[in-house]
Amino acid sequence: MTATPASTTAALSYIIPPADGVRGYQHINADPLTGERKKNFTREDKSRVIENIRGKEGSFTLDNAGFQYYRHPAKHTKFESDDEIQSEYYPESIELIKKLTGASRVVLFDHTIRRRRPGEADDSPDRRQPVPQVHVDQTTASAIARVHRHLPASDAPKLLERRFQIINLWRPIAHPALDWPLALCDYRSVDPKSDLFPIALVYPDREGETQGVKFNENNKWKYLYNMTPEELVLIKCFDSIQDGSVAVCTPHTGFSDPTTPEGTPHRQSIELRALVFYD
Question: Is there a smaller number of Cβ atoms within 10 Å at the N or the C end of the chain?
Answer without folding.
Answer: N
